[in-house]
Amino acid sequence: MSPRPLVFAHRGSSAAEPEHTLAAYLRALAEGADGLECDVRLTRDGHLVCLHDRRLERTSNGRGRVSASTLAELSQLDFGSWHPGLPESPDELITNRPVAGASDPDEAAEQAELDRGRLLSLDRLLTAVCAASRPVRLLVETKHPTRYGSDVERRLLALLDKHGLANPGPADQVRVSVMSFSPLALRRVRELAPRLPTVLLLEILLPTLRLGRLPFGARVAGPGIGLLRRRPALAGTLRAAGNEVYVWTVNELADLNLARQLGVDGIITDRPRFVLDHLGG
User: Fold this and answer.
1) What topology is assigned to 6-279 in CATH?
2) Given 20, 47, 52, 83, the catalytic residue
3) Sequential DSSP letters for 145-176
4) 278 a catalytic residue
């Protein structure tokens, strides 16, 4: 029997916790996810923060563009109260998850509650992942277009270098791949950090994909589940050309069964424990 695909927590365990919060990522690790996925955007003062949207309205009580705000300004916002899955009482919080720097269960519970609605910087996420003391795959998506252009990748690679993650080795516990819908972004990563794996995200069938070819040295394709529903043969074409396939965002059993049937290498999901339970992992 072939090994099960890797399971990546999309924006953390984001069906259960507010997306892109430390609580969501710590929960995903506690649930047994093989890896984590995050989106990054650059603030006005040059910090990478874990946020998907260009604007603040959907996931916070703020307004305007992320790129027009400083880290200090974003840190004052509430990024947790919007989430419908939050319990009404703090007594219902899951407290048995690991928290970087917490020395006892009470401290871990208090920190998890504090972090529930707080902005998460990529620097802090990397610190927590490195402190997990187990193998973790981290997928970091750079968002484009952006007013800061190539600065996003340059800042990202500098931060990965700070944490010792820009030049991966086979024995490293934490291994980072950079993802983007922008082939040019992946080319920049390839030029600046040639050993760092890259993932080309896909929503539509590009002409070169008919032969399974990925641009600029990418060896992993990241098709959306909608694309694989329409073009199921694409997964086999990509893998036959020597590429891995990570599919997003797989939350329902029918999609999970399709992904497994197609032999994908990684499944990106809001529900990592649900996926692991059905995969038997």
Assistant:
1) TIM Barrel (3.20.20)
2) 52
3) S-TTTTHHHHHHHHHHHHTT-SS--TT-SEEE
4) no
